[in-house]
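Feature request disguised as a bug: please show the residue count (503) next to Parallel beta helix pectate lyase-like protein in the output. Example input:
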Amino acid sequence: MMSRTLRALALFGVLVVAGCTASPAAEQQSGTTPAPATGSSSGTAVCGHTKPGPSEAPAGAVKIDPSVDGDLTRKSEENPPGTTFWLAPGTHTLGNDQYGSVTPKDGDVYLGAPGAILDGKRVNKYAFVFDAKNVTIRGLTVRGFVPPPDEGVVNHDSGDGWTIEDSTIENNDGAGLMAGSNQTVRGNCLKDNGQYGMNAYKNGTLTNLVLEGNEITGNNTGDWENKIDGCGCTGGVKFWAVNKADIRNNWVHDNRGTGLWADTNNNDFLIEHNVIEDNDGSAIIYEISYNAVIRDNTFRRNNIVEGRKFADRGETFPSASIYLSESGGEPRIPARTGKLEFYGNVMENNWSGVTLWENADRFCNSAANTSGGCTLLVKDINRCVQPDIAKKPLYDDCRWKTQNVDIHDNQFTVDPKAIGCNALCARMAVISNYGTYPDWSPYRGDVVQQAITFAQHNSWHDNHYSGPWTFMTQDTERVVHSSQWQSAPFSQDQRSTFVQSGG
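Example output, currently without the count:
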């Protein structure tokens, strides 16, 4: 996580303060103009506009009427698996103790009529619990539940095969919902929840997740990153060890913190056709994870709150809107791609652009590895010790590597005045720290700085830039301008164009 990484860098004395000089005179680079990035024009409002559920109970459905016999808990227990429950208009509740909740059975379906609300009254912890399979929730508003931190309201126990559609999950503590394998989350409003809109975590395998056509906004009302420095426990959506996720056509905006955050051994993500804007933190963090395609998205005004805060403190680490931290392509791990590809995106007036970062001190068995686990390439973490870690294959496999990142055919536009920036914005970066810790590390010195910059197949090309962009390479002391960035030894952004505007 970015804040956690910064804290580790401060502890180990590896973040060197450096200023960012003004851009040179206006320049237009010659060469072939890149193909225009497509992006997406505007987000689709779902909150307040969810598709309504059935106004009448379907044939064979069990009717739950809060004005007559609204005991949804009891009726879920009494009926067999595969039952459809229709919740009539009105406010449904689940008892007066903290454990009042619904326990679905396999294949159960919960349909909300227009105006049907399931309200935890700030008393109940959870709405839908236990790990039934193939449960459907559609057309329902779920609000007012108070789970503890890191726990969720809907699908609390990460049951597999759930479908959550056309529902509003809002004003809850913790996460609005959790995730299991083969889960589809489509057409929902995930709004103003205390920690996450969704926390995609499962104690076990979590694969095949679809997040499509949702509005994800205003989450992390509890401001947890400020309560627990470096907790890495917030986001519009947080993903943990998810294998294969399709994230498309969502509007992710105005979250307090990161929009989408994939943290720890995620793999095979497709993030496309989303509008991600006005989040306080990064639009996307992809951290110690593998193999992704991020394409045809629009990113606007992300990371301005956090970027300005870091700049005011004089922190020169590039506060990125797209933060790829110890993540990249790994062909040995099965996925739809063996790269981490970022293309066809439109980035407008974000605090900064794309940062490729690799912490030299973060690897299996290092105290700087705050995840506590190991890479997907090493089954036994105890192998990552001297002397074996100092030679191949463990020298490569015991660390998460920012490698095989391909950034092309994007549009990067920034006007510093429009985002209130006086310094330390409008930056791209491919950097590491000087390795210092632990004393048995084979990665001490500048070996990772050299590798991420020159040897790990990280490439920018065929992009279009507008604004006073600068580029940080190897470490935070080295800031170059576009002509240097394109020249040896970096040789980046071949066939890209640069137009000076803003200041």
